[in-house]
Amino acid sequence: MSTPPRRPSMADVAALAGVSYQTVSRVLNEPERVRESTQERVRDAIAELGFRPNRAARELKTTRSSLIGVMTDGSGLFGPSETTTAIETAARRAGYAVLLTTVAGEADGRELGGELLDSGADGILVVAGHDAMIPAVEAAARSTPVLAVTADPLDVPGVRTIGVDQPLGARQVVEHLATTGRRSVVHLAGPSDWADARARRSGFEQALEGSGIDGAVIPGGDWSPLSGARLTEELLRAGSPPEAIFAANDLMAIGVIHALSRAGLRAGEDVAVVGFDDVVPAAFLLPPLSTVSQPFALLGRTALELLLSDLGGGADGAARPDPEGGAVPLAPQLVVRESSAR
User: Name one Pfam family in it (predicted).
Assistant: First the structure.
Protein backbone atom coordinates (compact mmCIF):
# COMPACT_ATOMS: atom_id res chain seq x y z
CA MET A 1 0.00 0.00 0.00
CA SER A 2 1.41 3.39 -0.99
CA THR A 3 1.97 6.03 1.67
CA PRO A 4 -0.38 9.03 1.37
CA PRO A 5 1.42 12.20 0.29
CA ARG A 6 2.53 14.42 3.16
CA ARG A 7 2.13 18.19 3.11
CA PRO A 8 5.61 19.78 3.02
CA SER A 9 6.60 21.65 6.17
CA MET A 10 8.84 24.60 6.95
CA ALA A 11 11.44 22.11 8.15
CA ASP A 12 11.44 20.51 4.69
CA VAL A 13 11.96 23.91 3.09
CA ALA A 14 14.79 24.68 5.50
CA ALA A 15 16.51 21.39 4.75
CA LEU A 16 16.27 21.82 0.97
CA ALA A 17 17.46 25.45 1.09
CA GLY A 18 20.26 24.67 3.57
CA VAL A 19 19.09 27.21 6.14
CA SER A 20 17.54 27.14 9.58
CA TYR A 21 13.82 26.88 10.35
CA GLN A 22 13.98 30.43 11.79
CA THR A 23 15.39 31.76 8.51
CA VAL A 24 12.47 30.31 6.56
CA SER A 25 10.10 31.95 9.03
CA ARG A 26 11.82 35.32 8.57
CA VAL A 27 11.63 35.04 4.75
CA LEU A 28 7.88 34.46 5.05
CA ASN A 29 7.15 37.09 7.69
CA GLU A 30 10.04 39.57 7.82
CA PRO A 31 11.92 39.30 4.51
CA GLU A 32 13.67 42.62 5.04
CA ARG A 33 15.78 40.93 7.73
CA VAL A 34 17.17 38.32 5.31
CA ARG A 35 19.79 38.74 2.58
CA GLU A 36 18.43 38.68 -0.95
CA SER A 37 20.51 35.63 -1.93
CA THR A 38 19.14 33.67 1.03
CA GLN A 39 15.59 34.77 0.24
CA GLU A 40 16.03 33.47 -3.29
CA ARG A 41 17.21 30.03 -2.09
CA VAL A 42 14.27 29.75 0.30
CA ARG A 43 11.73 30.81 -2.35
CA ASP A 44 13.19 28.32 -4.82
CA ALA A 45 12.78 25.58 -2.20
CA ILE A 46 9.20 26.69 -1.49
CA ALA A 47 8.37 26.54 -5.20
CA GLU A 48 10.01 23.14 -5.68
CA LEU A 49 8.23 21.56 -2.71
CA GLY A 50 4.89 23.28 -3.27
CA PHE A 51 4.96 24.51 0.32
CA ARG A 52 2.10 26.70 1.56
CA PRO A 53 2.29 28.49 4.93
CA ASN A 54 -0.09 27.30 7.62
CA ARG A 55 -2.72 30.02 7.99
CA ALA A 56 -3.62 29.03 11.54
CA ALA A 57 -0.01 29.22 12.66
CA ARG A 58 0.40 32.64 11.11
CA GLU A 59 -2.73 33.81 12.95
CA LEU A 60 -1.14 32.84 16.26
CA LYS A 61 1.83 35.07 15.47
CA THR A 62 0.01 38.06 13.99
CA THR A 63 -3.53 37.90 15.49
CA ARG A 64 -4.72 38.18 11.86
CA SER A 65 -6.12 35.24 9.91
CA SER A 66 -5.92 36.68 6.38
CA LEU A 67 -9.43 35.29 6.04
CA ILE A 68 -12.45 37.26 4.78
CA GLY A 69 -15.97 36.02 5.41
CA VAL A 70 -18.55 36.49 2.65
CA MET A 71 -22.25 36.00 3.30
CA THR A 72 -24.78 35.66 0.46
CA ASP A 73 -28.30 34.34 0.07
CA GLY A 74 -27.11 31.66 -2.36
CA SER A 75 -29.02 33.30 -5.20
CA GLY A 76 -28.16 32.27 -8.72
CA LEU A 77 -29.13 35.70 -9.99
CA PHE A 78 -26.57 37.34 -12.26
CA GLY A 79 -25.78 40.39 -10.12
CA PRO A 80 -25.09 38.74 -6.74
CA SER A 81 -23.18 35.89 -8.41
CA GLU A 82 -20.93 38.22 -10.42
CA THR A 83 -20.30 40.43 -7.39
CA THR A 84 -19.38 37.49 -5.17
CA THR A 85 -17.00 36.11 -7.79
CA ALA A 86 -15.31 39.51 -8.09
CA ILE A 87 -14.92 39.71 -4.30
CA GLU A 88 -13.28 36.28 -4.16
CA THR A 89 -10.90 37.12 -7.01
CA ALA A 90 -9.90 40.46 -5.47
CA ALA A 91 -9.39 38.87 -2.06
CA ARG A 92 -7.12 36.18 -3.46
CA ARG A 93 -5.00 38.79 -5.23
CA ALA A 94 -4.73 40.70 -1.94
CA GLY A 95 -3.48 37.58 -0.14
CA TYR A 96 -6.74 36.72 1.60
CA ALA A 97 -8.74 33.52 1.55
CA VAL A 98 -12.54 33.66 1.43
CA LEU A 99 -14.94 31.68 3.56
CA LEU A 100 -18.34 31.71 1.81
CA THR A 101 -21.51 31.18 3.83
CA THR A 102 -25.03 31.04 2.45
CA VAL A 103 -28.05 32.38 4.30
CA ALA A 104 -30.97 30.63 2.64
CA GLY A 105 -34.10 28.65 3.42
CA GLU A 106 -34.36 27.93 7.12
CA ALA A 107 -30.82 29.09 7.89
CA ASP A 108 -30.51 31.43 10.85
CA GLY A 109 -28.62 34.52 9.74
CA ARG A 110 -27.57 35.38 13.29
CA GLU A 111 -26.16 31.90 13.85
CA LEU A 112 -24.29 31.89 10.57
CA GLY A 113 -22.85 35.32 11.33
CA GLY A 114 -21.56 33.89 14.60
CA GLU A 115 -20.01 30.94 12.78
CA LEU A 116 -18.05 33.30 10.55
CA LEU A 117 -16.76 35.11 13.63
CA ASP A 118 -15.78 31.79 15.21
CA SER A 119 -13.77 30.97 12.08
CA GLY A 120 -11.51 33.92 12.86
CA ALA A 121 -12.41 36.05 9.84
CA ASP A 122 -10.72 39.45 9.97
CA GLY A 123 -13.78 41.07 8.40
CA ILE A 124 -17.04 40.15 6.72
CA LEU A 125 -18.63 41.22 3.45
CA VAL A 126 -22.38 40.72 3.12
CA VAL A 127 -23.96 40.70 -0.32
CA ALA A 128 -27.22 41.96 1.16
CA GLY A 129 -29.64 42.12 -1.73
CA HIS A 130 -32.78 41.68 0.30
CA ASP A 131 -34.13 42.37 3.76
CA ALA A 132 -33.72 38.79 5.02
CA MET A 133 -29.95 39.37 5.13
CA ILE A 134 -30.18 42.18 7.70
CA PRO A 135 -30.18 39.89 10.81
CA ALA A 136 -26.94 38.34 9.55
CA VAL A 137 -25.41 41.78 9.16
CA GLU A 138 -26.47 42.78 12.68
CA ALA A 139 -25.03 39.60 14.21
CA ALA A 140 -21.68 39.87 12.46
CA ALA A 141 -21.28 43.62 13.09
CA ARG A 142 -21.24 43.22 16.87
CA SER A 143 -17.60 42.21 17.01
CA THR A 144 -15.93 42.52 13.60
CA PRO A 145 -15.76 45.02 10.71
CA VAL A 146 -18.64 44.45 8.28
CA LEU A 147 -19.30 46.00 4.90
CA ALA A 148 -22.62 45.40 3.11
CA VAL A 149 -23.05 45.40 -0.65
CA THR A 150 -26.54 46.83 -1.07
CA ALA A 151 -28.49 49.56 -2.82
CA ASP A 152 -29.76 51.06 0.45
CA PRO A 153 -27.77 52.20 3.50
CA LEU A 154 -28.50 49.86 6.40
CA ASP A 155 -29.66 51.08 9.78
CA VAL A 156 -27.03 48.95 11.53
CA PRO A 157 -24.42 50.72 13.70
CA GLY A 158 -20.90 50.54 12.37
CA VAL A 159 -21.77 48.97 9.01
CA ARG A 160 -20.62 50.73 5.86
CA THR A 161 -22.33 50.06 2.53
CA ILE A 162 -21.39 50.19 -1.12
CA GLY A 163 -23.65 49.66 -4.12
CA VAL A 164 -24.63 50.74 -7.60
CA ASP A 165 -26.77 53.85 -8.07
CA GLN A 166 -30.02 52.09 -8.97
CA PRO A 167 -32.19 55.26 -9.17
CA LEU A 168 -29.73 56.75 -11.64
CA GLY A 169 -30.10 53.69 -13.88
CA ALA A 170 -33.89 53.99 -13.80
CA ARG A 171 -33.69 57.70 -14.62
CA GLN A 172 -31.48 56.91 -17.61
CA VAL A 173 -34.17 54.55 -18.90
CA VAL A 174 -36.95 57.15 -18.62
CA GLU A 175 -34.81 59.84 -20.25
CA HIS A 176 -33.97 57.48 -23.11
CA LEU A 177 -37.62 56.62 -23.70
CA ALA A 178 -38.53 60.30 -23.68
CA THR A 179 -35.88 61.17 -26.28
CA THR A 180 -37.14 58.37 -28.55
CA GLY A 181 -40.66 59.80 -28.45
CA ARG A 182 -42.38 57.30 -26.17
CA ARG A 183 -45.19 58.89 -24.21
CA SER A 184 -46.39 56.03 -22.02
CA VAL A 185 -44.34 53.53 -20.02
CA VAL A 186 -45.09 50.85 -17.47
CA HIS A 187 -42.53 49.65 -14.94
CA LEU A 188 -42.81 45.99 -13.98
CA ALA A 189 -41.35 46.17 -10.46
CA GLY A 190 -39.26 43.54 -8.75
CA PRO A 191 -39.88 42.02 -5.31
CA SER A 192 -40.52 44.66 -2.66
CA ASP A 193 -38.20 43.04 -0.09
CA TRP A 194 -35.17 43.64 -2.35
CA ALA A 195 -33.34 46.94 -1.98
CA ASP A 196 -32.45 47.06 -5.69
CA ALA A 197 -36.08 46.68 -6.74
CA ARG A 198 -37.23 49.43 -4.39
CA ALA A 199 -34.46 51.75 -5.58
CA ARG A 200 -35.24 51.17 -9.26
CA ARG A 201 -38.92 51.82 -8.69
CA SER A 202 -38.11 55.00 -6.75
CA GLY A 203 -35.82 56.26 -9.52
CA PHE A 204 -38.47 55.49 -12.14
CA GLU A 205 -41.17 57.40 -10.27
CA GLN A 206 -38.89 60.38 -9.69
CA ALA A 207 -37.86 60.48 -13.35
CA LEU A 208 -41.48 60.60 -14.53
CA GLU A 209 -41.97 63.99 -12.87
CA GLY A 210 -41.63 66.62 -15.57
CA SER A 211 -40.72 64.09 -18.26
CA GLY A 212 -43.98 64.40 -20.18
CA ILE A 213 -44.42 60.63 -20.09
CA ASP A 214 -47.46 58.89 -18.64
CA GLY A 215 -46.17 56.18 -16.32
CA ALA A 216 -47.44 53.45 -14.06
CA VAL A 217 -45.96 50.78 -11.82
CA ILE A 218 -47.16 47.19 -11.74
CA PRO A 219 -45.83 45.34 -8.66
CA GLY A 220 -45.49 41.60 -8.22
CA GLY A 221 -42.36 40.65 -10.14
CA ASP A 222 -39.95 38.11 -8.67
CA TRP A 223 -36.96 38.61 -11.04
CA SER A 224 -37.98 35.59 -13.17
CA PRO A 225 -38.96 35.48 -16.88
CA LEU A 226 -42.20 33.80 -15.82
CA SER A 227 -43.21 36.81 -13.72
CA GLY A 228 -42.31 39.19 -16.54
CA ALA A 229 -44.47 37.23 -18.96
CA ARG A 230 -47.36 36.95 -16.50
CA LEU A 231 -47.42 40.66 -15.66
CA THR A 232 -47.24 41.56 -19.36
CA GLU A 233 -50.13 39.24 -20.21
CA GLU A 234 -52.20 40.84 -17.44
CA LEU A 235 -51.29 44.29 -18.75
CA LEU A 236 -52.35 43.40 -22.30
CA ARG A 237 -55.65 41.89 -21.15
CA ALA A 238 -56.44 45.12 -19.30
CA GLY A 239 -56.34 47.25 -22.48
CA SER A 240 -54.07 48.71 -25.12
CA PRO A 241 -50.36 48.21 -24.50
CA PRO A 242 -48.16 51.13 -23.42
CA GLU A 243 -45.54 52.44 -25.78
CA ALA A 244 -42.78 51.09 -23.52
CA ILE A 245 -42.24 48.53 -20.76
CA PHE A 246 -39.35 48.89 -18.31
CA ALA A 247 -38.74 45.55 -16.57
CA ALA A 248 -37.03 45.41 -13.18
CA ASN A 249 -34.31 43.13 -14.56
CA ASP A 250 -33.26 41.42 -17.78
CA LEU A 251 -34.82 38.07 -16.90
CA MET A 252 -38.21 39.71 -16.47
CA ALA A 253 -37.62 41.60 -19.73
CA ILE A 254 -37.10 38.27 -21.51
CA GLY A 255 -40.54 37.25 -20.25
CA VAL A 256 -41.95 40.55 -21.50
CA ILE A 257 -40.62 39.96 -25.03
CA HIS A 258 -42.04 36.42 -24.98
CA ALA A 259 -45.51 37.62 -23.94
CA LEU A 260 -45.52 40.40 -26.54
CA SER A 261 -44.59 37.94 -29.26
CA ARG A 262 -47.39 35.57 -28.27
CA ALA A 263 -49.80 38.50 -28.51
CA GLY A 264 -48.60 39.36 -32.03
CA LEU A 265 -46.66 42.46 -30.92
CA ARG A 266 -43.05 43.23 -31.83
CA ALA A 267 -40.63 44.35 -29.13
CA GLY A 268 -38.85 47.50 -30.25
CA GLU A 269 -41.42 48.36 -32.93
CA ASP A 270 -44.84 48.06 -31.30
CA VAL A 271 -43.61 48.27 -27.70
CA ALA A 272 -40.16 49.37 -26.50
CA VAL A 273 -38.66 47.03 -23.90
CA VAL A 274 -35.82 47.86 -21.49
CA GLY A 275 -34.31 45.68 -18.78
CA PHE A 276 -31.71 46.10 -16.06
CA ASP A 277 -28.36 44.31 -15.34
CA ASP A 278 -27.02 43.54 -18.87
CA VAL A 279 -26.80 39.77 -18.49
CA VAL A 280 -24.70 38.00 -21.11
CA PRO A 281 -27.62 36.81 -23.30
CA ALA A 282 -29.16 40.33 -23.49
CA ALA A 283 -27.21 41.29 -26.61
CA PHE A 284 -28.17 38.04 -28.39
CA LEU A 285 -31.95 38.16 -27.99
CA LEU A 286 -34.22 38.96 -30.93
CA PRO A 287 -34.38 41.88 -30.80
CA PRO A 288 -31.25 42.61 -28.74
CA LEU A 289 -32.30 43.97 -25.37
CA SER A 290 -31.71 47.55 -24.23
CA THR A 291 -30.70 47.47 -20.60
CA VAL A 292 -28.83 49.17 -17.78
CA SER A 293 -25.37 47.69 -17.34
CA GLN A 294 -24.11 47.43 -13.76
CA PRO A 295 -20.36 47.34 -12.99
CA PHE A 296 -20.51 44.14 -10.92
CA ALA A 297 -16.79 43.34 -11.19
CA LEU A 298 -15.86 46.86 -10.05
CA LEU A 299 -18.45 46.62 -7.26
CA GLY A 300 -16.89 43.43 -5.90
CA ARG A 301 -13.35 44.82 -6.07
CA THR A 302 -14.38 48.09 -4.46
CA ALA A 303 -16.21 46.32 -1.64
CA LEU A 304 -13.13 44.23 -0.85
CA GLU A 305 -10.82 47.28 -0.99
CA LEU A 306 -13.08 49.26 1.35
CA LEU A 307 -13.17 46.43 3.87
CA LEU A 308 -9.39 46.00 3.76
CA SER A 309 -9.04 49.75 4.21
CA ASP A 310 -11.15 49.47 7.36
CA LEU A 311 -8.85 46.66 8.51
CA GLY A 312 -5.79 48.81 7.84
CA GLY A 313 -4.51 46.58 5.08
CA GLY A 314 -6.06 47.87 1.89
CA ALA A 315 -5.71 50.68 -0.58
CA ASP A 316 -7.25 53.91 0.64
CA GLY A 317 -9.49 55.83 -1.68
CA ALA A 318 -11.07 52.84 -3.42
CA ALA A 319 -14.35 54.73 -3.18
CA ARG A 320 -15.08 58.12 -1.75
CA PRO A 321 -16.86 57.97 1.63
CA ASP A 322 -20.15 59.76 1.98
CA PRO A 323 -21.06 61.88 5.03
CA GLU A 324 -23.05 59.01 6.60
CA GLY A 325 -20.23 56.50 6.58
CA GLY A 326 -21.09 54.61 3.41
CA ALA A 327 -19.44 55.02 0.04
CA VAL A 328 -20.45 57.01 -3.00
CA PRO A 329 -22.41 54.56 -5.20
CA LEU A 330 -20.99 53.36 -8.48
CA ALA A 331 -22.63 54.57 -11.68
CA PRO A 332 -24.51 52.23 -14.04
CA GLN A 333 -24.63 52.78 -17.78
CA LEU A 334 -27.58 52.53 -20.16
CA VAL A 335 -26.91 50.28 -23.15
CA VAL A 336 -29.30 51.03 -26.04
CA ARG A 337 -30.11 48.17 -28.39
CA GLU A 338 -32.87 47.37 -30.88
CA SER A 339 -35.58 46.58 -28.30
CA SER A 340 -36.02 50.30 -27.61
CA ALA A 341 -34.13 52.22 -30.30
CA ARG A 342 -35.99 54.29 -32.87
Answer: LacI
